[in-house]
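Bumping with the actual sequence this time:
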Amino acid sequence: MESIISAVFKVESEGYQALTELKRRPVTDSCIVSQAALVKKANGKLTVLDAFDTGMETSNDTAIGGLVGSLLGILGGPVGVLLTGSMGALVGSAMDADDAVYNASLMEKVTEQFLDGEVAVVALAQESENGAMAARLSNFDVSVVREDAAEVAEEVRQAEALQREMAREAKKRLREKKKAERNAAIEERRAKIKADFDELKRKFTQKS
């Protein structure tokens, strides 16, 4: 089964060690790791500390890409903030309350699974049986969550669509705000020009 796996470590150094071991040996009889990233949660946000990509989905083996990269990009963006519950009021008409992003299983779990200061390895892996990745990480103090990679890919697609809609809505509101400010400035300038003419007329009327 192909899965997106999130493994949370209590000790940051163990997260680095686990990623290094996965990078050194991505293929075993029971598990193949296509791409993985070590992320840290701080102030409610996820930051990528280290990553690798075998090139199975992307041509660059020195940077994270593909599904894991897209997932982390979503979690690090406005939709990721939305999933923590602090941005719902800003979305408004951009999404319905029953939008699929609210039902996003792994994305919610990744944001809620670990606390500030903790780290997690997020990986795209193929396991010969459930628990294969957990077995590889059994030497560490770790908790593992897995979700079907195809389902996560669909969640990411919908979240990316939502993010684009949010960006369009934000640009629309910014344009409307700028237009309102411009119209206000024009009216102020128009009033000033008229006032200048009124003053000029008053002065010449007094002279006559």
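The tokens above came from a reply further down the thread. The chain has seven helices and five strands.
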